[in-house]
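Before the break, one more example. Copy the sequence into your notebook; we will annotate it together after we see the structure.
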Amino acid sequence: MPGPQDRGGKRMADDHVEVVEGWIVCQSRPWGDEAAVAVVRRAIQGRVDELGCCMGSGDLDLPGSSNWYVPDIAVVPRELAKGGGALLPDQTLLIVEVTSESDAETDRVVKRKRYAEYGAPLYLLIDRVEETVTLFSGPGRLGYTRTEGPHPFGAALRLPEPFGIVLDTSEL
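Here is what the structure looks like once it is written out:
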């Protein structure tokens, strides 16, 4: 399934256009979400570089489903990112979603289920509504098998290998 596009085949003006369970979702990210994304980017940038990866908000396709996601952050091997097309969740090392009032349940339930089903190894949920962080790992067809959290903002959260770093959530 091709990603959300206008009639000319080009990306729509809003880069955060997703297809979630068959529904086209267009939303801009609130400044609080942007700030949370910036905190995570700063915290993991050095390790991302060491791993030969890049991070961004590129398209993730979920073949065979009616979904096309644009995560707040996805960490992917640099070589895969050079391809120019959408990637699959199992090609990521980490996916980060930051909730806001309008999409909290989607990030908490729908995306968590789908990212696990499609093999994303680590899913970090920064829940700005509940002011918690939760790390999901051990993906499978029925969901993630391991959950670390939810922890309140301010708690230190260890990101497992290949990251092997502690994320300070006090600035979220």
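The chain has one domain: 29-57+71-168. Residues 31-50 form the longest helix (20 residues). Try to locate both features in your own notes.
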